[in-house]
Design brief:
about 180 residues; alpha+beta; 50s Ribosomal Protein L17, Chain: A; 3-stranded antiparallel beta sheet; 3 strands
């Protein structure tokens, strides 16, 4: 019997399950809304709520504990700076789970897990910024004057080496049958 054992195994070993929850929590804190399966979302909720609750006590110990889970200083600063201020008056319940139908391939129940009072612009913000910087760099490279040399790889030139000819005495002769 599983007395007082909480959480699901999710068909994973414990190390894989913990890293799954850490990665999902990173994505949730970064984008403030993600879509996953319903059992994963239900297991992720207490994991993230504990992180956000630690973010409300801004001291070195709690920062190190949150960094131990997230391993990204930008996310740690987001937890302690923006999310802690946002949820300072709230006593828990930082995460909301909404059912969103079934997955096409295997009919697994899907769910959207999001932070309560989330920032609408946070979803996909890093990808938008990355694409914007990429376009900017492409435009800047096109604006270079033609006289400046661009780093171009030299084309490979195929050398046509004819087959070395054998001396006449070593050539095979046809034999008559």
């Amino acid at each position: 019997m599983r007395h007082k054992i909480s959480g699901r195994k999710l068909n994973r070993k414990s190390s894989h399950r913990i890293s799954l929850l850490k990665n999902l929590s990173k994505s949730l804190i970064r984008n403030e809304q993600i879509e996953t399966t319903l059992p994963k979302a239900k297991d992720l909720r207490p994991f993230v709520e504990k992180l956000l609750h630690k973010g409300k006590t801004n001291n070195l110990h709690s920062r190190r504990k949150v960094y131990d889970y997230l391993r990204d200083m930008t996310l740690v600063s987001k937890v302690f700076d923006t999310l802690a201020k946002r949820y300072s008056k709230r006593n828990g319940g930082y995460v909301r789970i909404l059912k969103s139908g079934y997955r096409y391939g295997d009919s697994a129940p899907k769910a959207i897990i999001e932070l309560v009072d989330r920032d609408e612009n946070a979803k996909g913000l890093q990808d938008k910024l990355r694409l914007k910087n990429k376009e900017k760099s492409e435009v800047n490279s096109k604006d270079l004057p033609e006289n400046t040399e661009k780093s171009v790889k030299p084309e490979k030139v195929e050398k046509k080496n004819p087959k070395p000819e054998l001396p006449e005495n070593n050539q095979k002769t046809e034999t008559k049958k």
